[in-house]
Design brief:
The chain is an all-alpha fold and 170 residues long. It has one domain. Helices cover 81% and strands 0% of the residues. α1 packs antiparallel against α2, α1 packs antiparallel against α5 and α2 runs antiparallel to α3.
């Protein structure tokens, strides 16, 4: 495989993982908003509102980074490999916290729903908080994978201001 083919493969691989992260963050933001609207318990409402509020800037920032992922001759700071790496590390840490927060509230939410639910629909009622926690974890995992891919590029770069696509070529 020539250097140019490898560079194209790296750009496509990064774009695919950025897109997966974008999709999971989008699903998490929408589902968290829906769960916050449907569930009346304060813990579930507040935690899912926090997740959906954090999801919006995540969506915007991943979209911006995805737009600058394949600009070979760009000198803009958003095209730098270090910007991509640092951004994904910060977003990964934020989503790790959100994932732990949402997961820790699942038992409490399900217990409260069990006390209220007399029709035997506890499994259905408990699904919302569980699904939002799962998508928060998926968002964290894909953001971490994006950070790992960007880290690979940063270690191959010649300087801290190197363009993310130029680092793939050399």
């Amino acid at each position: 495989m020539s250097g140019t083919d490898k560079a194209r493969t790296d750009v496509k691989l990064r774009a695919a993982f950025y897109s997966f992260a974008l999709c999971f963050a989008l699903f998490e933001t929408i589902l968290a908003a829906i769960v916050a609207a449907l569930y009346v318990f304060k813990q579930t409402l507040h935690s899912n509102l926090i997740a959906s509020v954090i999801g919006v800037p995540t969506l915007v920032w991943i979209s911006v980074l995805l737009a600058y992922n394949n600009r070979l001759s760009s000198t803009h700071f958003l095209a730098r490999a270090t910007t991509h790496f640092n951004s994904f590390v910060v977003m990964s840490l934020i989503w790790l916290g959100v994932s732990i927060f949402l997961s820790s509230l699942v038992p409490l939410s399900c217990r409260k729903l069990e006390a209220v639910d007399t029709n035997g629909l506890r499994g259905i009622s408990c699904t919302g908080p569980v699904v939002t926690a799962i998508f928060a974890w998926l968002t964290f995992i894909t953001l971490s994978l994006c950070a790992a891919l960007a880290r690979k590029v940063v270690t191959n770069s010649k300087s801290r201001t190197s363009n993310i696509t130029e680092c793939d070529v050399f």
